[in-house]
Amino acid sequence: MDKFFRKIISMLFVGVMTAMMFSCSSRKSEPVKQKEFTSTRQQVVHGEQVYMLHCQKCHPAGEAGIGPSLNANPAPQFVKRFQMRHGLGVMPAFKKDEISTRDLRDISKYLKAWKHY
Predict the structure, then answer these.
(1) Domains and CATH numbers, the chain
(2) What proportion of the chain, given as a percentage, has pLDDT over 90?
(3) CA angle, corner 71, sides to 67 and 77, nearest 5?
């Protein structure tokens, strides 16, 4: 039982430290290019749809909202997918029946395409 509480406390500490690190990042919004972000790649389009359904309300346009900015987050995509699946801090965990593994990969491709737009 004692190990369980230590594990929870350490996970909370990591979550708080991560939130503190990324919540103070500068705004990195859509660049002024006189055009909107669009993609013809089906995986990116599908990732955008799933993102809008599950992520947009806390991370509007990838910026800080209730959750921290995703655009300025330098973490690798596999770390972001792990966080989406397992949650961290106030970030809820999304089980496979909510967001499939394919959906996670497509969200990741969308975020990467958006970041390099």
Answers:
(1) 2-25+40-115 (1.10.760.10)
(2) 29
(3) 95
